[in-house]
Amino acid sequence: MDNGVPLDRSDPGRRLLGKPDPHDERTDLAAGGLLRVLEALDRGVLLVEAGGRVRFANALARQAMDQLGGTGSLIPAALARAIEEEAEAPPEGFSQTVKVEATRTAQYDMRWRSMPGGHRLVVLSPARASRAALIEQLRQQFGATLQEARIALLIREGLSNQEIADHLGLSQSTVKTYVSRLFVACNIRTRTRLIVLLDQISPRAA
Length: 206
Known about the structure:
By secondary structure, the chain is α+β, with helices and mostly antiparallel strands. It has nine helices and five strands.
């Protein structure tokens, strides 16, 4: 079985794989400085050939490949399965986001789109914590009750006290009491500060 060309991890400025060819797209990429731009992105970017060989991987993509158990220059099996299981991407856009688990503590949100020649452009972002994980963290770290933690997440989604009351089947006065207790538990005074705190714990996708 062909394990592909090993990823060259020695030169962070040039991650296109295979032998140099002055007639391929690498020359234009390097000349335009796009490789440096891709290296600096806060998302992983991979260009994958039709056979599964990784043609390009920036810094975060290489980190994800290591966590996902990638071998040589072949796309990790977990990413390949996620792509195969996802419906075809729109001709001019990206697929729906799917989650790919690397380890118990590391997950990635993956999107991909079809490229000419059967290639795929894959974009990876560290997955934000699930609602359940964020609720548990609020309970463990700040001593919030289950209901207070649920209300905190609804506040971040922009719901008013009345909307939260309607959503949870509570009275507005009861919600106000929970919100007041939540502010005390988190040592904050405003909804804005609560949202900032939650975003620090679990950044929202851009």
